[in-house]
Amino acid sequence: MEPVSVTKRQEHQMEVAVMKMLRFPLGVSRKDKVRNEVIREKLTTGEFSAKLREARLRWWGHLIRSEATCVGRRVMEEEEREVKKEMD
Whole-structure pTM over 0.70, yes or no? Predict the structure, then answer.
């Protein structure tokens, strides 16, 4: 999964969709009032937001290890320069 910019609202919407998909194989509906933690525990899955954070960190590590001529790394370095200029 390549990380993209995601707002808190979009992250929440994705979390809701994932929970819908996790409830279905267990035959549990929202009317049953089963907590999300219980469902995740039964299926041994983690939170979607944690997976998203993990993917972002993995991508960042990939950029750090890439060559200086790589487009992604050049963009990242340029953004760092712009942030430093704004702070000065």
Answer: no
